Amino acid sequence: MTFDSTYPTLKRFIDKCSKLENSRFVKSISQEFRLGLNITSGGPLKVTSIRPDQDNIDAFILNFRYFIQDNEPTSIRNLKEFFNSSFVTKEEKNKFNSLRRNIQKYLSSSSNLAIFEKEFSHGELMDTFIYGGISHATEVKEQKFHSLMKREDAKEFFWHKFIIIISFMLNAIKYIRDMLIIIIERHKT
C-alpha cells in the first residue's frame, strides 16, 4: 500500500462526509427536530414529531452507506487497515481504534425501544431502518421494519431514535474526516 494508492479512498471519504454534513437532512435536524407526547386523562396518547421528510432521509442514507457497508473501501471497518499503516501516527491510530470501539459499544447497546417484547440495540434498529425500509430491503428486515411502522402509537419513537443513531454515526464520521485531513496535509509532496 502506498499513500498515493490510498489517497483516492481518503479523498472520497472526506467528500462523502462533506456531502452528508451539508445535506438537507442535517440542516433539517439542526433547525427543528423533536418528538412530543400529549397524554390526557382517560384519552389516547398523542405523539407529534417534527423530523426530516422521507426524501431528505433517503438521500442522506444513500451517501451514509459508504461508511457502513464493508463492500465500500470508505467504510469505517475498511479504514482500519489504513489506520494500522505507517502513514498514521501512533496517537492517530489509537484515536481511530478508540472511536471504533466506542461505535461498536454504542451500536451494541440498548436503544431502550422494544416491540413484541423484542428490545432493539442501536445497531439492530439502524440496520432494520436502512436495510428493511430505506434501501436494499431483505424480506426479513423489511417485515421487521413494517412491523415497527404499523404501530401508529410507536412509529415516531422508532424514527426519532433512528435519526439520533445516524446523527451519532455522523459525528464519528466527521471525527475521522478531520483526522484524515490532517494526515493528508502531512503527506502532501
Separation, N- and C-terminal Cα atoms: 17 Å
**Strand element count:** 4
- Structural class estimated from helices and strands: mainly alpha
Q: Approximately what portion of the residues adopt beta-strand conformation?
A: 5-15%
Mean pLDDT: 90
Question: What is the H-and-E element order?
Answer: HHEEHHHEEHHH
Largest sheet at a glance?
2 strands, antiparallel
Poorly predicted parts: none
Query: Count of helical segments?
Result: 8
- Number of structural units classed as domains: 1
- The rough form would be described as elongated
- In order across it, which strands form the biggest sheet? 1-2
Helix content: 55-70%
Q: What is the subunit arrangement here?
A: single chain
Any idea what the radius of gyration is? 19 Å
Briefly summarize what is shown.
The chain has helices at 3-21, 24-31, 54-64, 79-83, 90-108, 122-134, 139-149, 155-187; strands at 34-39, 45-50, 110-115, 118-121. With 189 residues, it is mainly alpha-helical.
What would the keywords be for this entry?
189 residues; mainly alpha; two-stranded antiparallel ribbon; 4 strands; 63% helix; 12% strand
What do you see in this structure?
The protein has 189 residues and is mainly α. It has one domain (3-187). The chain has helices at 3-21, 24-31, 54-64, 79-83, 90-108, 122-134, 139-149, 155-187; strands at 34-39, 45-50, 110-115, 118-121. The strands form two sheets. A two-stranded antiparallel sheet has the order 1-2. A hairpin with a 5-residue loop joins strand 1 (34-39) and strand 2 (45-50). The mean pLDDT is 90.
